[in-house]
Amino acid sequence: MSATPVEPGFAVVAVDGSEEGYAAVAFAAKEAVRRGLELHLAHVMPVYLPVGPLLMPPDEVGMGAYASETMASAARAALEAAPQVVVTTHVLAGGRVAEIVDLARRARFVVVGRRHASALDRAWSGGTLDGIVSRAGCPVLVVPDVKTREGASPRVVLGYKSAAHADELFEAGFRAADELGAEIEVVHGWRLAGGYDDIIARRVSEPTWNREQKTEIWRLLEPWQTAYPHVRVRIQVVHEYPVRALIEASRNADRLVLVKPLHGSVVHHLGRTARGTLRFAQCPVEVVPSKPRDDLTMPPVRVEHEGELVP
After folding, report:
1. Of 21, 157, 173, 208, which residue is the least packed, with the fewest Cβ within 10 Å?
2. Are strands 255-260 and 233-238 parallel, antiparallel or unpaired?
3. What is the set of domains in the chain, with CATH numbers?
């Protein structure tokens, strides 16, 4: 069964029946209402189940009823979290990754819950998570089941790697910070693996290198700060493995934004840093696909007239 693509202006959340999945549904409902979007709940059943030596259709073992109950529970969770949300449910059959990605082809974003998988489960759940994040053509929000930060100033962390995809990162990061009323922390870790890091460390002064990287990042940030003057920004450059720096920064963040690079025309690739961050970040992670240069949305121009901003 192939999913029918949703119309523009929708959000999609993957529902698997777990507690973590329902937490992701609640997060997605609030996010959809905040952005003025309808929410599509999607649950995928396997086409056949291995039972003994035979492959049995799911309905013969009651999977259809389970799927219906799961979707009813997910719809309740969405409405409890955001009573204004408009919900549509989809019970699909096939491969999890393929069906969710197909449904989301015209969605604004996808939300996936991160389960606390055992070592035995990790290959299955991790493959589903990585597959959706790497193949979706829109931003994907991966939501861990963590407590909301209470009483702290909202913060969005941006995982900066290089200037190559800085505009996509800043576009998503400043939009999120503007919507959440948050400050931005740009985090750049630059430790290399093994003996290569020792070679670099002997050739450069760590404080000098950090200072030069901060100067370069500030230069790239300038047009975005001009467009969003109310968003506070700070930069952290550390001699640390990027994944460790990002996981540590996520402990005091409400959103962590990463860019997945484009290989060829449509295929994205998750590197070691992205995979590790998705597994262990302590806040929702938004993974943004990189774009061809002509598709980037550059900072909006703010025009002043007699000291007032003109909309």
Report:
1. 208
2. unpaired
3. 10-144 (3.40.50.620), 155-303 (3.40.50.620)
